[in-house]
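Task card 7
Instruction: Convert sequence to C-alpha cells.
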Amino acid sequence: MAKPFAEIQVPQQKSVGNFQFPAVLSPHLSDNLDLCRFKEAVKEQKPRIEEILRTSGAVLFRDFPVRTASDFNEIVEAFGYEELPYIGGAAPRSNVVGRVFTANESPPDQKIPFHHEMSQVPEFPSKLFFFCEVEPKMGGETPIALSNRIYNRMKENHPEFVGELEKHGLIYIRVLGAEDDPSSPIGRGWHSTFLTKDREIAEDRARRLGMKLEWTEEGARTIMGPIPAVKEDELRGRKIWFNSMVAAYTGWKDKRNDPEKAVELGDGSPLSPAVVEDCLRILEEESVALPWKQGDLLLLDNLAVLHARRSFLPPRRILASLCK
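Output:
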C-alpha cells in the first residue's frame, strides 16, 4: 500500500523549528479507507507514524473512519503497544470496551491543569491515545505543550528553583475516600486507585509504587515521593518538565484536598506561589488547543508532551487508552 496518510495543516497548529505541533494526518483524497483498511495502514505505516511522533511529540489523525469506542479500541490494538493498567492515577474514569477508558470524568465546568499522565507515580505510560466520540458543544479542547520548551523557559526564568527541583524532586499528597467522587478531578477512591477493596492488597500495590499509604477515618492518605520532576528524554536527548506540579497545586481541590498542601519540594519545602503562577503562564503561552472533531484520534508521546482539559458545554465524550 502506498502512503495512505497525508500530512496536512490546520488552524491553531504551531510551527516549532522545522516541524508542526501537533502533526496532523488525514487520508489522501483519492483513498476510500474503511476501518479494516485503516487498521492495515496503521500496521504498515507504523514506522513512519513513529518517526513523525518522534519529531513532533503529538500526532492527530483526522477524518479517518473511526466512529465508536469499539472502532477506537481496534485502532489502538493495531498499533501493537502493550497496555498499561491505570494503577495509582488520580482521575475518575471507567472502562468502556477492551483497553479503552473514559477520559477524566470530572464535571464539565472544571478545567484540568497541565500534566504528564501519571507523572506522580514511578510507572507511567509512554504513549496516550485520545479519541473524540462526541465532539463538545463548546470548548472542551485538550491543550498540549512540549515539555522540553517548558523546562527551558522555567530554567531561564527560575534557575534557582529549577536547580532545587532537579536536586530534590517533588512530593505529592492526596486524601482519598473509599469510593470514587465524580464531582472531583482527582476523585478516584482508593478502591479504584489500587484496583482492589482489600486493604492488604492496596498496601502491597502502594509499596510497589514507592507510595506511603495511611488509613484514615474517611479512607486513605497517600504520600508519593520524593519523585523526580525533571527527566531526561533519552530518545531526543533533552531535559523535560515531567511533573504534575501545576496540576496538583492549582487543581487538586475537593472536599478532602487542599491543593496548596498537595505538592511540595522533596525536602519538604513549600512551593513558591509566584513560581507556580509563572509556570502556568508559560504553559498557556506554549500550548496548542485544537478544537475536537468527532472521530479525531490523538496520539501523544507522554515523555514529550503535557496535556490539559478546558471546561466545556456538554455533550462531550473523549475516550483514552494508556500504553507502556
